[in-house]
């Protein structure tokens, strides 16, 4: 396992920020997740962890922290961890999306801009597995990396005040799903009928950082059916373990 230089900095009175090299890479992400598993094994009740791209925020649940003491403790874990014995559980999720123009309100415009037909755009979008690099902006909003360069398109010049729940969008090098209605500036190409975030559950977001997502194209009739199935609680997203 590759070793990375890690910068440890104070992050307010209750938290510490750990920064890996400033690059978007799966190896860096999984190195962070491996450290989290190792660290939580003995510190689960003391620290809350937030992973995003190349950083890890440790928030102390005991209250105010002494940064020098916390830094020394973290450095000890970094020095003694055995990554060969750390297993990070991750899954590939298959997420249904309807790309009909009723939902893909920017689909034709984006396809024209990328010099693709709408079918070519959808085929490319559903052909890749995307890595979940972070969850934020909105509760349950997944930042998905791994978008092919052929689908890269800038954010909209004028964000919308209302983007529908379940909207699937493109922005820069990323794709993502809006977990609830909100303002947003991503280019909307489809909609997912399944709610991926439920604040009433012990784990509100079923997908975790480090998981992968692949989109499955469905027709409008399937969309309507899956929406009903999800509302009554009988729809189950397909997930496949990635590491045994």
From TrEMBL:
Keyword Acetylation: no
UniProt keywords, alphabetically: ATP-binding, Hydrolase, Nucleotide-binding
This protein's encoding gene: pxpB
Residues in Carboxyltransferase domain copies: 6-207
InterPro entries referenced in this protein's UniProt entry, alphabetically: CT_C_D, Cyclophilin-like_dom_sf, PxpB
Pfam families in the record: CT_C_D
Its EC number(s): 3.5.2.9
Name under which the protein is recorded: 5-oxoprolinase subunit PxpB
Transmembrane domains' residue ranges: none
GO molecular function term, any single one: 5-oxoprolinase (ATP-hydrolyzing) activity
């Amino acid at each position: 396992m590759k070793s990375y230089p890690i910068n440890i900095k104070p992050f307010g009175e209750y938290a510490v920020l750990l920064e890996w090299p400033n690059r978007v890479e799966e190896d860096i992400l999984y190195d962070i997740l491996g450290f989290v598993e190792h660290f939580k094994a003995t510190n689960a009740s003391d620290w809350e962890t937030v992973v995003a791209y190349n950083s890890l925020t440790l928030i102390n649940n005991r209250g105010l922290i002494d940064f020098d003491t916390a830094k020394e403790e973290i450095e000890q874990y970094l020095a003694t961890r055995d990554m060969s014995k750390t297993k990070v559980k991750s899954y590939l999720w298959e997420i249904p999306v309807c790309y009909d123009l009723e939902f893909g309100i920017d689909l034709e415009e984006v396809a024209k801009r990328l010099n693709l037909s709408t079918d070519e755009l959808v085929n490319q979008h559903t052909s890749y597995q995307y890595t979940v690099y972070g969850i934020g902006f909105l509760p349950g909003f997944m930042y998905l990396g791994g978008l092919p360069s052929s689908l890269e398109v800038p954010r909209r010049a004028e964000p919308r005040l209302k983007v529908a729940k379940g909207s699937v969008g493109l922005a820069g090098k990323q794709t993502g799903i809006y977990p609830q209605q909100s303002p947003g500036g991503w280019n909307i190409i489809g909609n997912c009928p399944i709610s991926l975030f439920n604040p009433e559950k012990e784990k509100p977001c079923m997908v975790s950082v480090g998981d992968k997502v692949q989109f499955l194209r469905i027709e409008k009739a399937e969309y309507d059916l899956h929406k009903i199935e999800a509302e009554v609680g009988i729809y189950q997203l397909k997930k496949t373990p990635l590491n045994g």
